[in-house]
Amino acid sequence: MGCFWGAEEAFRGVKGVVSTTVGWMGGRKENPTYKEVITGMTGHAEVVHLEYDPSEISYDELLKIFWENIDPTTLNRQGPDEGTEYRTVIFYHSEEQGELARRSKEDLERSGRYNKPIVTEIIQATAFWRAEEYHQHYFEKHGGSCH
Q1: Which residues are designated catalytic?
Q2: Alpha-carbon distance 2 to 30, whole Å?
Q3: Model confidence, pTM
Q4: 128: left (phi over 0), alpha (psi -120 to 50) or beta
Q5: In CATH terms, is domain 4-142 a member of 3.30.1060.10?
Q6: Which of 12-16, 112-116, 138-142 is predicted with the least confidence, judged by mean pLDDT?
């Protein structure tokens, strides 16, 4: 969803979301630091790892929140943040999640809501690397918001 501070905030208070952790996924370096990721050289995307209770919120409902909080037509950019680390991507953990994510993207494409192609990637999850502590629950600690 671009900047992980705003992405985390979009999910943090949602009923059924048990925990949020910001970090990186999809890159080539093990345990990267923020300073390494923002160079664009590691290939990671800023992400939020969600734990949720499926008896309170469905994966489809989480996908809806995702799509409502991004511009899926901008490549490697969300708001003022630009670079591959800010690309929009859904990393799924099971084939069922992958299928639901692909279907939600197809539904959005058919909706006619956007005049440009949707460039959001949908890929199998890789290793998740937790960001430094000062990034965790950033807006809760410091206030503020994204664009």
Answers
A1: 3
A2: 21
A3: 0.93
A4: beta
A5: yes
A6: 138-142
